[in-house]
Batch of 2 targets.
Target 1
Amino acid sequence: MGFWYMLLLFIGICLLFAGILPKRGFSLGVKIAFLLGGALCIGVSLFMFSPGSAEIMVDILGL
């Protein structure tokens, strides 16, 4: 499972860079969406890397 969390982390980093770097074709809304999506991906992956996160997810999902 760690592979998928690392992949999610790298996707989040790429989205953050896509939102930060100046591009002519992107509007402000698209840049904000990239930044928020990247931050969300990074946050979820770092949470899932932490110890005890599996038990928290079981409690949240009710499995």
Note: The two ends are 18 Å apart (CA to CA).
Target 2
Amino acid sequence: MITLTILAMSLIVFGSRYIFIEPALPLKLNKSVKRLLSYSAPAVLTAILTPIVFLPEGELSLSWTNPYLLGAIATALVVAKSKNVLLAVFIGTLVFGVARYLL
């Protein structure tokens, strides 16, 4: 039963992705829908990261002893300044690691 569920979900996900990727299919999205979909990745990432950064122990932690918060702030600052995502991830991870080690 579990295998059947996994296969069914795989087909659903593949089908929903294939419709938008295959250029031979006549499905075209208008500009409003494309603009709306451009916000989906940041929205999903925000929904995943917000509890990790602000609730690391299960309760709100906005102090400077929160390594997750320090890493997130460092990453945001590097992205805002340099626009280099790889550098931002490296610096954010480094700040997180050092903060976790020292704190």
Note: The longest helix spans residues 2-21.
